[in-house]
Target: Hydroxyacylglutathione hydrolase-like protein isoform X2
Amino acid sequence: MKVKVISILEDNYMYLIIEETTREAIAVDAAVSKRLLEIIRREDILLKAILTTHHHWDHARDNEELAKLYPGLEVYGGDERVGALTHQVTHEEELKFGSINIRCLLTPGHTVGHVCYFVWENDSLNAPAAFTGDTLFVGGCGRLLECTAEQLYKSLMEVLGGLPKETKIFCGHEYTTQNLKFASKVEPENEFVKEKLIWAKLREDEDLPTVPSTLAEEFLYNPFLRILEEPIQKFTGKSAPLEAFAALCKARESFRKPKERLNPQAMLAFEWGLFDPLLQK
Ligand SMILES: [Zn+2]
Model:
């Protein structure tokens, strides 16, 4: 199994999971079909299915177009708002593509129908992978748009947090530097945050992705997975985990790049998928 990281739009990631013996492939968040088709042609692979994490246009925009180009293409997601959806998955439902296994994990928080996909290959020494969309980011987590802090907390701590620690995390956006700047405000003494931030800035300078991380690493520097740690509770002033988590989400809302703060309307439009995609890029 090979995972291709494809950087698209402003800061999104689209992925291709390739079964190397059969040359069959599964796309994750196929928002830019043109880029996907180029790679499919170049790699000489056959697209079998799309896994969509959530319905926002920057994750699902080109599902319909791909479904037209590939009759019989299977489109998986957890929300009927996902374009060209053929299979609405349930929590812990398992899918199989040759030697590749996929467990669908319902992870409400950013949207009500958000799904993360845990993927592993039979008889492989490689670590499993999780495609976490806008639920878990490197160093952070998605914004609460349709759900409560409690739902997102459970999705992060119980559903994703319970995966094997060596799981590779492939998330939906390149937000790592900004996430870690917030993390360093929350935990200024955390050496793992400092190190990862230096590394992420170097990657940014080289225009290289910061994915994947591993779940084990995330527990070291991602404040949203470290709610039970003393510095986080000190920062939020709350000792009850759920209250501390909600306070952290709130603090993050006011921690934005000045550009975003100046133009809240643009942020909203982006998050709710109101932009005309042609205008956006
Ligand atoms: Zn989104």
Q: What stands out?
A: The radius of gyration is 18 Å.
